[in-house]
C-alpha cells in the first residue's frame, strides 16, 4: 500500500491549489480525481461560460451604438462560438494532470471512498495517509419531481454543439440568469421559471428588478411563483407543468435550482466526519470532526460564497496550516458577480444590512447612466449603491449594476480591504476618463 503525508480528494481549483505548495515544501502528496482534472471551473463552469459571454458582450456593446456610429448589430453564430469555447476546455484535463505528474505529485484516477480515517480506496488501490483533505466540490441539485430526468444540467448547456430553438431554466440563481443572458443573445426563445418572486435573493431587490427589466427587453420570458411538478416528453420537445395552468413546451430544459455538495459517496459519516445540508462541517482551521481529515472549497458548509477564488484562498491557507498549526482562517471581503449585459455585483456589508443600522451607515445611491463613462457607450442602465460607515467615512459595502460592474466591484473590494477612507480614495490620481476616475464620486 502506498503511503503519503497528505492525500487530496478532488482535482479542482481547491485541490490543485493545495497540492503544489505542499509538494514544494517537501511533503509526499497524491491527488485523486474521478472526472476531469481541473474540476468544475475550467471544464464546466466559470471559464467556458466566460468565453460564451465574450460574444454576448461584443453583441450588446455593438447594439447600444447602433445609429451612434455602428451600423449593424453583430449576430452570434452559436456553432462557431462553441467550437471556440472548446479550444479552451479541451486541453484542461490532460494539462492539469500532466502538471501534477511533472511536479512529482502522484495522481489517481477514480472514485475515492474512505475505509478508515487513514485509508482511502480508489477502485482496487488502497492509499494510506497521515492526513486527508476533501475538496470534492458540488454537483447540480435535482428537482425530485416526475420527469426530472428530462432536464439537463449546466454542464450540458456549456457543451451544446447546437443552440435549441427554445429552452427553459428551472430555478433563478446565478447560473440561470447568466445562461439566460447568453442564450437569448444567441437567438433562442428563453424562459426562466422561479418558485417565488425573489430570484437572486442575496442581491438588493431594486437591482435585481433592473436586471430582470433589461433581460425582458432582451427577450427573456420570466415565470415567477411557479412550482413545476411534472415534466413529460412530447416528440422532440418537453412539456413542463405546475398543475395550476402553466404548460410550457420547449426543446430543452435545464435544472438551475442550486448545487449540492459531493459529500455523500465518500463514506464520510461512517468514519465520523459530520456533514449538514450545506456540506462538510469544519472548524476555523478547516478541520473536520475527524482530526486528521480537512475539507475546503465548495464542499464545505460555510457562509462564504462558493467561488473559485474562495477555494484558492482556502487552499493557500491550508498549505500553511498543514505544515505549521497557526491561526484560524479569516476571509477578506469577497465580491460576488452575476455575469451578463448588464452585470450585477456586490461586496462587503449589504445594502439591506446597512438599512437596518441607519445610525451607523449612509447609503449613497448613484444613477451613473448619464455619467460620461457610460453615456459614451450608450448603455441602458448603470447604477450603484455604496455603503459608507459614518464614523470613519470609509466604504464598507457596495452594489453595482452595469456592463462594467466587474471592474468597479474589484476596485471597491481593494478599497474595502485596504480600509481606505473616502479622502484617501479622492487623493489618488487615476487615468481619466475611466471607471477608476469615477470613484471619487462614490463617497
Ligand atoms: C456553471 C458554473 C459557473 C460558475 N461560474 C463561476 C464564476 O464565474 N466565478 C467563480 O468564482 N465561480 C464560478 N463557479 C463556481 C466554481 O466553479 C467553483 O466554486 C469551483 O470550481 C470550486 O472548486 P473546488 O475545487 O472546490 O470544486 P470543483 O471544481 O467542483 O472540483 C472538485 C473535484 O472533485 C472531484 N470529485 C468529487 N467527488 C470525488 C470523489 N469521491 N473521488 C474523486 N474525485 C472526486 C470532482 O470530479 C471535481 O473535479 C461556477 C460554477 C458553475 C457550475
Ligand atoms: N458568477 C458566479 O460567480 C457564479 C456563476 C454560476 C454559478 N456560481 C456558483 O454556483 C452556485 C449555484 O448556482 P445556481 O444558480 O444553480 O444556484 P443558486 O443557489 O444561485 O440559485 C438557485 C435558485 O433556484 C431557486 N429554486 C430552488 N428550487 C427551485 C424549484 N424547484 N423551482 C424553481 N426555483 C427553485 C432557489 O430559490 C434559488 O433562487 C452559486 O451559488 C455559485 O456558488 C457562481
* Number of DSSP-assigned strands: 23
CATH topology of the largest domain: FAD/NAD(P)-binding domain
Distance N to C terminus: 62 Å
So what's the CATH class of the largest domain?
Alpha Beta
Helical content stands at 25-40%
Number of helices: 13
- Oligomeric state, counting identical vs distinct chains: single chain
Low-confidence stretches: none
**Coarse structural class:** alpha/beta
Major sheet size, sense and barrel closure: 7 strands, mixed
CA gyration radius, whole angstroms: 23 Å
Which strand-content bin applies to the residues? 15-25%
Question: Could you say which small molecules are bound to this protein?
Answer: flavin-adenine dinucleotide, nicotinamide-adenine-dinucleotide
Total count of domains: 3
Second-tier CATH architecture of the largest domain:
3-Layer(bba) Sandwich
Mean pLDDT: 97
CATH superfamily of the largest domain: FAD/NAD(P)-binding domain
User: What characteristic shape results from the CA principal axes?
Assistant: globular
Cofactor: FAD
Binding site for FAD: 50, 298
Binding site for NAD(+): 171-178, 258
InterPro entries: FAD/NAD-bd_sf (IPR036188), FAD/NAD-binding_dom (IPR023753), FAD/NAD-linked_Rdtase_dimer_sf (IPR016156), Pyr_nuc-diS_OxRdtase (IPR001100), Pyr_nucl-diS_OxRdtase_dimer (IPR004099)
Amino acid at each position: 500500500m502506498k503511503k503519503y503525508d497528505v492525500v487530496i480528494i478532488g482535482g479542482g481549483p481547491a485541490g490543485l491549489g493545495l497540492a503544489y505548495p505542499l509538494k514544494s515544501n517537501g511533503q509526499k502528496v497524491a491527488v485523486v480525481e474521478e472526472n476531469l482534472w481541473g474540476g468544475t471551473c475550467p471544464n464546466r463552469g466559470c471559464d467556458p461560460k466566460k468565453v460564451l459571454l465574450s460574444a454576448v458582450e461584443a453583441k450588446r456593446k455593438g447594439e447600444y451604438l447602433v445609429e451612434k456610429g455602428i451600423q449593424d448589430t453583430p449576430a452570434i453564430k452559436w456553432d462557431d462560438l462553441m467550437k471556440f469555447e472548446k479550444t479552451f476546455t479541451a486541453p484542461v484535463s490532460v494539462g492539469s494532470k500532466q502538471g501534477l505528474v511533472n511536479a512529482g505529485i502522484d495522481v489517481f484516477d477514480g472514485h475515492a471512498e474512505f475505509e478508515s480515517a487513514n485509508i482511502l480506496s480508489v477502485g482496487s488501490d488502497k492509499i494510506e495517509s497521515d492526513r486527508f483533505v476533501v475538496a470534492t466540490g458540488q454537483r447540480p441539485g435535482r428537482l425530485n419531481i416526475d420527469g426530472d430526468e428530462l432536464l439537463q444540467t449546466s454542464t450540458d448547456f456549456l457543451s451544446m454543439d447546437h443552440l435549441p430553438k427554445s429552452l427553459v431554466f428551472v430555478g433563478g440563481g446565478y447560473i440561470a440568469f447568466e445562461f439566460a443572458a447568453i442564450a437569448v443573445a444567441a437567438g433562442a426563445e428563453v424562459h426562466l421559471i422561479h418558485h417565488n418572486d425573489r430570484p437572486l435573493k442575496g442581491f438588493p431587490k431594486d437591482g435585481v428588478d433592473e436586471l430582470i427589466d433589461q433581460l425582458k427587453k432582451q427577450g427573456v420570458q420570466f415565470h415567477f411563483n411557479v412550482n413545476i411538478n411534472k415534466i413529460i416528453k412530447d416528440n422532440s420537445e418537453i412539456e413542463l407543468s405546475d398543475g395550476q395552468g402553466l404548460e410550457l413546451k420547449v426543446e430543452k430544459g435545464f435544472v438551475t435550482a442550486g448545487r449540492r455538495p459531493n459529500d455523500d459517496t465518500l463514506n464520510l459519516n461512517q468514519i465520523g466526519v459530520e456533514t449538514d445540508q450545506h456540506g462538510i462541517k469544519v472548524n476555523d482551521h478547516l478541520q473536520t470532526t475527524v482530526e486528521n481529515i480537512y475539507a475546503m472549497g465548495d464542499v464545505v458548509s460555510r457562509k462564504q460564497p462558493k467561488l473559485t477564488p474562495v477555494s484558492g484562498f482556502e487552499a493557500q491557507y491550508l498549505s500553511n496550516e498543514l505544515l505549521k498549526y497557526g491561526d484560524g482562517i479569516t476571509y477578506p471581503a469577497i465580491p460576488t458577480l452575476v455575469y451578463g449585459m448588464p452585470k450585477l455585483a456586490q461586496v462587503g456589508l449589504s445594502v439591506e444590512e446597512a438599512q437596518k443600522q441607519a445610525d451607523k451607515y449612509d447609503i449613497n445611491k448613484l444613477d451613473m447612466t448619464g455619467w460620461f463613462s457610460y453615456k459614451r457607450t450608450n448603455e441602458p442602465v448603470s447604477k450603484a449603491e455604496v455603503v459608507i460607515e459614518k464614523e470613519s467615512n470609509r466604504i464598507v459595502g457596495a452594489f453595482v449594476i452595469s456592463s462594467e460592474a466587474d471592474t468597479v466591484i474589484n476596485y471597491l473590494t481593494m478599497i474595502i480591504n485596504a480600509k481606505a477612507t473616502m479622502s484617501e480614495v479622492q487623493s489618488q490620481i487615476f487615468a481619466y476618463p475611466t471607471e477608476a476616475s469615477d470613484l471619487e464620486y462614490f463617497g
